[in-house]
Every structure is written in C-alpha cells, then in structure tokens.
# Entry
Amino acid sequence: MINRTKIIAITLTGALAAAALTGCGGSSSSAAPSSVSTAAAESSASSAAVSSVVDNAENGTDTLDGIYNALLEQDPISNQFEIAAMNIEYDFGLKAEDVVSYKGVKSNDNGDAGLVLVLEAADGKAEDVANQLAAYQQDQVAFYGNYAEFAQAQDNVENAVIAFKDNTVVMVIASNECTADLDSAVDNALA
# Structure
C-alpha cells in the first residue's frame, strides 16, 4: 500500500509541476508556436463553418476585380488585410444569401480605417447590402469615436462612400494617406 501511495503522490506532483510550468508562461518565443497552432485550428474551424454559411460566395470575379483594382489605385490601403468570407458575415453583418461574390481589403493598422470592398449582391438585394454597410459604417464611427487619437480614422469613416449600381455594391473608406476624391473614383468605377 505504501508503494501505491508513493506512486500516486509522485504522479500528482509531476502533474502539478507540469501544470505550473505550462500555466506560468515562459518565453514569448515558446508561447508563439502554441498560439499560432491554436489560432490556425480555430481559423480552420471558423472558415469551415462560415464557408458552409456563406453558400457559394466567391472571393472575386473578373467584373469585381476591375472595379476593385481601380478603387484600390485611388485609395491605397496601408498594411492590407484581405477580407474573407468570415468578415463578410460577422464583421459587416451581411446575410450569406445576399452576397454572390466579393473582393476587398482593409487596413490592418491601428487608427487607419481604410477599406475597399466590392460585392456582387444577389438579385434584388443590392439596396439591402448597401443599407447593411451603412449600419457597419455607423458602428465604426462609434468605435473610432471612443479614441481621441483616432480622430482621422473617425472622420474617414464618417465620409465613407457606399454606392451600388445593378447588383454591384461598393464601400470605400479613405486610408489616412489617401488624397483622392473617392466619390468620383466610385462613380467612375461603377460607370
């Protein structure tokens, strides 16, 4: 019986030591691989769930690529983050059945709300998509309004251009470095 008690005690001590070492952190370089693999696993799971929700929406088509490239030339987005299917539904609040295809990037810099997003809406849904993008715009105005240091980004979001023609919907938010007339750029791109 004493040997069994010692084995249990040694096993518990080892488990506690392992938990303490794991829970106490460690160097940032040893934590990164674990975080990256966890994030990758979560991203894969999220992407799989969203791809089933977003039906057959594509990331870009030839028609969208032309409009997207023209707008991105006028509004070069700093530190670009590509908009994915997950962002379409969860960030912008768009219904999966309302979006056929999309192409876009947003700035990944703090305090820069720059965005170029072009969507092909399902038939008869362009106005609904534009209205939902306007709701997203108001959420972003409120978000940036919480931070005095992001006044430029808040102003840019307040002046976002949201437009649609037929089934093509566009939302453009000036990047902090943008000096182009985005109203004209959107009009030209949708012409």
Remarks:
- The longest strand covers residues 99-107.
